[in-house]
Structures are given as C-alpha cells and as structure tokens.
Prior knowledge:
Blueprint: E1 14-17, E2 20-23, H1 27-32, E3 35-36, E4 46-48, E5 56-57, E6 63-67, E7 72-82, E8 85-95, E9 98-100, E10 151-153, E11 156-167, H2 170-173, E12 182-193, H3 197-200
Parallel strand pairs: 3-5
Antiparallel strand pairs: 1-6, 2-4, 7-8, 8-11, 9-10, 11-12
Amino acid sequence: xxxxxxxxxxxxxxxxxxxxxxxxxxxxxxxxxxxxxxxxxxxxxxxxxxxxxxxxxxxxxxxxxxxxxxxxxxxxxxxxxxxxxxxxxxxxxxxxxxxxxxxxxxxxxxxxxxxxxxxxxxxxxxxxxxxxxxxxxxxxxxxxxxxxxxxxxxxxxxxxxxxxxxxxxxxxxxxxxxxxxxxxxxxxxxxxxxxxxxxxxxxx
Length: 204
C-alpha cells in the first residue's frame, strides 16, 4: 500500500525504522499530534513523523533510515626502510554504514539497572537540553524501537597492522648458504579512529 516501504530496489542490508522529531513537551502537543500506536505517550517520549498522512503512527510509517554494512571500504598502507629495519603500517577504513544503539546499555527496561546515558534523560527541568527520553518503571514500547533517534554512523579507520622487520646484514650471511634472513614483530587491530569510537568499542 505504501510504496516507500517496498524492499525491492533497496540495499539488502537496509535499516527500516521511524523518523524521530524530538520529544513531546506537554499534553497539549500530544493531543494535537497524530496518535502513536505504541502504548500510552507522555511528555518526554519520542515523537515520530507520520509518513503516510493517515493521522496514525504505526509500523506503516517505517522508512529506510540507513544500512548496516558500510558500502565503501578503503585501505592505506605505508612502508619505510632504514638500513636493515623496515616499518610497515596498514589502515583499513569503512564509511557509509550505520549501527543501532539498541543494546541493554541504551535501551533500559523498567527498573533494571541503568547505564550512565540516562543522566541526560528528559524531565520538565531538562526539557530544553535532554538527549534521552523520560524514564519509567514500566515497559516503554514507544521509545525503544528502531528509529533514527538511536542510529549512529559506523564510519571508522582501523590501524589494522604494524609490522617491524629486521633483516640480517648481507655480510653476516656471506659465508652461509642463506641469502636472506629476517625476523619481524607484528601487531594486529591495534586502534580505531572514529567519531563514535566509544560506541564501537562498547562491550557489556
């Protein structure tokens, strides 16, 4: 019925979800807004856009909001040799992908243990600065669902490899049957450069 929800012609790793529009500020705004069909809505809950204009926000208002897999990958390598020592660095980058902050660290459940992100929750006093929806001791199906509110970019550059090689001098090997002999030390997946490094490195 809603052509924007067609999967044909879209990436197979496309993320579909709702498009957020800030937080509800009061009951008057809730009353004048299209009904959201994910439970009772209160001030401080996430507000969504009505994509098809039917004055009801439900699963039919989910649109393509991103993609899981980065469509662009690239690599950088650098090598320098001084006398018998060679240093090699390899970087691999990914851009254009997205992730969803949907783990237990971000999506709280009732009165279970919370993480530090809830310190920026919505209250009447923080309504102009809040970056996290209101807290509730009840399950909140409206706030904790796939939407661009929870999405983040996974763009990153990984320091994938550093290798240091030492080649024995030719004069040492001159009188042996060995023509070349080297030893090396290598480190892999050493560091990630990314705006969202803290999220990418997060383990619970």
